[in-house]
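Async update (no meeting this week)

Hi team, since we skipped the sync, here's where things stand on the single-chain job. The sequence we agreed to prioritize is pasted below, unchanged from the tracker. I ran it this morning and attached the output directly underneath so nobody has to dig for it. Comments welcome in thread, and please keep replies under the output.
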Amino acid sequence: MKKIQLEILGLSSSQSQTGSFALVLGERDGNRRLPIIIGMFEAQSIAIQIEKINPNRPLTHDLFKTFAEQMSVNITEILISDLKEGVFYSKIMCTDGEKEFELDARPSDAIAIGLRFGVPIYTVESVLSEAGIILSDLEEEEDENEEMAVKSSSSTTASSSKEPLNQTSVDDLNKMLNEALEKEDYERAAKIRDELNKRN
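Output:
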């Protein structure tokens, strides 16, 4: 079974399902995209790990990592293994140093855990050929233009929303960061963290 490596390309609110998010994975050495609809909690967990934010209390996926480490179990890879009636299936590939074993999981949970262990994400050809979206050269160009438009508008928004942060002292920023983490407002925490990083 030939495995195809994927990388996370984006995470955005789902247009089709309220309260859900679209996680877009891309073929590492190709032009196919694999969009997967995931829940809000899993999306938040993935976003927190991508943004390298440390929540005050461990999330479920952090707890899983700590538990696995205490039991001397290491995760080696994540495999999105199957697609049946529109539902994705995945496996978390594990080892305890002596034997290898796999755990069934939803792709959203598997990816959130895989990110915490820093392991690669794979799928198989049957899944990509059934659910993958191929980007033609024209669509890629349109996507790039849209991305640039989104980036420029978001950077304008970010700069205008960060103006108050620019005028805040480092001590106050650290207090605000702690408050945002306590309230579990990770989006605001990421903005404050970025402002602090700029000054370091």
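Quick observations from my side:
Confidence is low (pLDDT under 50) at residues 148-163.
The first strand starts at residue 3 and ends at 13.
Reply here if anything looks off.
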